[in-house]
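dude i think i finally got it to work??
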Amino acid sequence: MASLLGVEWISSAMTAEDLEVRKQHPDGLQLAFTSKQHPITVHILEHDAQVFNDMQEIMTADVLWASNNALWDSWNVPNFGPEIRSAWKHYKDFNADFLEAVGAQLEKTPGTPVLVQDYQLSVLPAMIRCRHAGVPVLLFIHIPWPAADYWSMLPKYLRTEFIEGMLGASVVGFFAARWCRNFVDCVRDLLPDAVVNRDAGTVEYRGHVTTVAAMPLGYSPQAIEHRSKALPADLQSWVADSFLFVHSGRTDPIKNGARDRRVPSGL
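look at this
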């Protein structure tokens, strides 16, 4: 989709190699997959090392991934010490780095819609709306959203700022309708001034209306059309006349799994 539209893609440097690419392409790296598609310009951000570490290892891995996937044994965890306030500040600093990069692009093309991807950038929509009023912002969250009682285990200041940040978006998207319902229930629980319409999936807060919508993951027709309908010969020989089920899942160290593990099974 990005290559069909032509977009400016803003990302974070995670390795020394990423930083080298950033150095070589200060105005962004252009990628074009076919001559018929628009190039994607990738802008790589460099963050303060402590800011990035606290965002990734504490806020993303230890806090938000666990809370939103209901992984805590609530009899024993979580236990939040003073380090959570520092990590939360750095989470917001991380989002502020993206605000500057988004602002630079909006100066070139005012009013361009902004798509914010996932929970690492959840306070960015409110930052954008504060500085660039009227810009359409879509925030999509790729993880579940728990019930209000479970999410209340997080410190209240963190929950409040987190949801206020999300409500800066024009649209907040989740994969499932029940996660949308859980989210608006959290809004109602935390923000008594918000006008919540659970059935319509809207939240009005501080003069701004946010639509909360379920957007199940689909497949690209273009990607499917270009795939061969036949299995490779060596795989076909192994499968023979049996059914083949293939599970492809991407995990990473914060999710306590092996990266890019694929497990095919023949029956």
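The first strand starts at residue 8 and ends at 12.
im so relieved honestly
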